[in-house]
Design goal:
Largest sheet: 6 strands, mixed
Number of strands: 14
Order of helices and strands: EEEHEEEHEEHHEHEEEHEEH
Structural class: alpha/beta
Length: 311
């Protein structure tokens, strides 16, 4: 899929990108009223932050992780962009996308704090890592739904990584290469890979145990992805096909009981993670595909027993 390039911004100006359209017309939701004059107010007499609202039907359905690739040569003058997606239009919070530290990861921000947070990011008193560290289980900065038990790492990637394969399914990506036996054992537990590199692709629907739904995913076993952090994943997913989920098999997978995988959100809050036993990964992919559950339903919250442990 070819998307239009984003416009260049001036110093101190933040892009507000519409990614949700109805019959080709941009939908802004309540954010239209909050940013109608091209500015976001800053409490306490500061600001306001200058905003540049942009719309093009070619950005319909654009994911936050794909925004960095659409920046003009030289990047962005601002360290973040704001996305108005379907969640924002239907009452959710706007999505901030990192354009500087780990481009493509995201965090939701309460709409009434947009000016305050943007002003702090532009002024350097707040960095995107701060947003990620203080997200709640739903990926909203300073929310009240509890802190994730497994917060997303904020260490920048050690180097550039190649784009991930395009697929409208799920990807299982190996990022730790120190336990070949453990990796082979996990693939065997998943049913083994077929000739095209998929696990679970040949599962017989009549034999599926719905309580242990098998994971169907394209396996990526390439040392080029060694050390790939979850925050860098969204920018590596090609925009051509709507990949459902990327699950990482990292060092914790081979060290922890139940072989926990790190599932990476690509849609609602790019780079947000859910750490869960590999046996739950198939159910997660299936429920995300049919929109029966949301990514945050699988995020374990500090001090709260994960729902699947009671299943």
């Amino acid at each position: 899929m070819s998307c239009p390039e984003l416009p260049r911004t001036a110093s101190g100006e933040v892009l507000v990108i519409c990614t949700y359209y109805d019959k080709g017309e941009p939908c802004w939701g309540e954010l239209r009223d909050r940013t109608g004059d091209g500015a976001a107010p800053v409490p306490g007499g500061g600001g306001p932050v200058r905003l540049r609202r942009v719309a093009d039907a070619g950005w319909d359905g654009l994911r936050g992780g794909n925004v960095p690739a659409l920046l003009p040569h030289g990047g962005s003058a601002a360290p973040v962009a704001v996305l108005v997606d379907s969640a924002t239009v239907y009452g959710g919070e706007p999505l901030l996308v990192d354009l500087a530290a780990i481009p493509g990861r995201g965090a939701r921000i309460a709409a009434d704090r947009l000016g305050e947070i943007l002003d702090a990011l532009l002024g350097g008193t707040l960095v995107f890592d701060d947003l990620v560290r203080a997200m709640d289980g739903q990926g909203t900065y300073q929310g009240d739904a509890g802190r994730p038990a497994f917060p997303a790492p904020t260490t920048p990637p050690p180097h550039a990584f190649p784009a991930l394969p395009a697929t409208d399914g799920a990807l299982l990506v190996r990022t730790c290469f120190e336990d070949d036996d453990g990796w082979r054992a996990m693939l065997a537990e998943l049913g083994g890979t077929d000739a095209e590199g998929w696990v679970g692709a040949d599962a017989d629907s009549d034999d599926i145990d719905v309580d242990n739904y098998p994971l169907t995913a394209l396996v990526v076993d390439d040392p080029a992805y060694a050390g790939l952090p979850p925050g860098a994943v969204p920018a590596l997913v090609p925009p051509g096909e709507h990949t459902v989920l990327v699950a990482l098999a990292d060092a914790g997978t081979f060290a922890g009981a139940g072989r926990p995988l790190v599932a990476v959100d690509l849609d609602d809050v790019p780079g947000h993670i859910a750490v869960l036993p590999w046996r739950e990964a198939g159910s997660m992919v299936c429920n995300l595909e049919i929109a029966n559950m949301d990514f945050h339903d699988y995020v374990a919250v500090e001090g709260v027993k994960p729902w699947w442990e009671d299943a």
